[in-house]
């Protein structure tokens, strides 16, 4: 009971920080609202939040890896054509067939949620909104309280092309490549560092890590990696590594959504080159240091997720509400 109250106190504390931010620097975000709203389905599907939460929490209880997968699914959806659920579509050349998305998961959770929502409110709730809500609820399962608010009202896109996934940031990207990728989507330096904190959960394929450990048949460790941590990475990712091999992005608390990611970065324990890149720019490194404060991290993550969830959304009469998330409506 004491631990639960402690988590609830922390949730209240960071929401207080969010409230202050929205009243000040965050006010500009409200002016750029692309047609989304809180409680968008209040009259058309009033139980949408409870349905999404119930299904998501049940699935996460059975599979603790799902928060990382669903958060990544949301990110990969929004960074390609905007938050339109295009990553969910099944076809021979869809986004999910592209190399950066082959390791993305969580689709079965979205399908399960959609099935229940179609029974409760046929043709009302978009798959794009389900992706956004499920990501939030999966991460929040640990705390039994929402870590950020989700605006809804997105509609689903009609197309998905693997060729568009070049918009996704590379795990090998340096700082300049990362900041350019985020800026192209209306996200700034703070958003880059804050959203990278999603790497406090989830896994990376060894193919994204081994270039920092080996060169050909020889060991060649990136000098920006802590030597003991590099040895741990090599134990998970031998040379050569099986194609299915993975490593925890956060080697300290891999299943806990917390701010240890930033502490790891300061200790030269970022798994990906793109993680370490955040420490190689003075302004980014200062934000990394700020986010070692957990209350600042949770408050900042809430605001940056809100911004990401607005990227190139379809709203109003644009797009459609898919009956099945894996296929566009045929009529």
TrEMBL record:
GO terms for cellular component: extracellular region. It is found in: Secreted. Binds 1 heme b (iron(II)-protoporphyrin IX) group per subunit. Binds 2 calcium ions per subunit. It is an enzyme of class 1 (oxidoreductase). It comes from Zizania palustris (Northern wild rice). GO terms for biological process: hydrogen peroxide catabolic process; response to oxidative stress. Substrate binds at residue 169. Ca(2+) 1 binds at residues 77, 80, 82, 84, 86, 95. InterPro entries: Haem_peroxidase (IPR002016), Peroxidase_pln (IPR000823), Peroxidases_heam-ligand_BS (IPR019793), Secretory_peroxidase (IPR033905). Its EC number is 1.11.1.7. It catalyses: 2 a phenolic donor + H2O2 = 2 a phenolic radical donor + 2 H2O. This is peroxidase. Belongs to the peroxidase family. Ascorbate peroxidase subfamily. Heme b binds at residue 199. It comes from the Eukaryota. Disulfide bonds join 45-121, 78-83, 127-325, 206-237. Residues 1-27 form the signal peptide. Its cofactor is heme b; Ca(2+). PANTHER family: PEROXIDASE 25-RELATED. Its main location: secreted. The record marks 72 as: Transition state stabilizer.
């Amino acid at each position: 009971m004491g631990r639960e109250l402690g988590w609830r106190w922390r949730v209240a504390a960071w929401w207080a920080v969010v409230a202050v931010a929205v009243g000040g620097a965050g006010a500009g975000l409200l002016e750029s609202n692309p047609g989304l709203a809180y409680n968008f389905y209040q009259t058309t599907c009033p139980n949408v939040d409870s349905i999404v939460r119930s299904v998501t929490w049940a699935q996460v209880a059975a599979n603790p890896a799902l928060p990382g997968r669903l958060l990544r699914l949301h990110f990969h959806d929004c960074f390609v054509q905007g938050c339109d659920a295009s990553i969910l579509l099944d076809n021979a050349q869809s986004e999910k067939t592209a190399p950066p998305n082959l390791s993305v998961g969580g689709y079965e959770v979205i399908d399960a949620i959609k099935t229940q929502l179609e029974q409760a409110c046929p043709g009302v709730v978009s798959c794009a909104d389900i992706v956004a809500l499920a990501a939030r609820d999966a991460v929040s399962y640990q705390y039994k309280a929402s870590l950020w608010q989700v605006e809804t009202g997105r509609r689903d896109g009609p197309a998905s092309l693997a060729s568009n996934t070049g918009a996704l940031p590379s795990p090998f990207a340096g700082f300049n490549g990362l900041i350019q990728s985020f800026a192209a989507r209306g996200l700034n330096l703070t958003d880059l560092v804050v959203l990278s904190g999603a790497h406090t959960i989830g896994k990376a394929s060894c193919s994204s890590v081994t270039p920092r450990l080996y060169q050909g048949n020889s060991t060649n460790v990136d000098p920006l990696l802590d030597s003991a941590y590099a040895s741990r990475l090599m134990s998970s990712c031998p040379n050569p590594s099986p194609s299915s091999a993975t490593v925890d992005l956060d080697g300290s608390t891999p299943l806990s959504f917390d701010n240890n990611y930033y502490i790891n970065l300061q200790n030269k324990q970022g798994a990906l080159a793109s993680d370490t890149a955040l420490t190689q720019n003075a302004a980014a490194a200062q934000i990394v240091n700020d986010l070692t404060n957990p209350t600042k991290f949770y408050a900042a993550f809430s605001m940056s997720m809100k911004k990401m969830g607005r990227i190139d959304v379809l709203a109003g009469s644009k797009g459609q509400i898919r009956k099945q998330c894996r296929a566009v409506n045929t009529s």
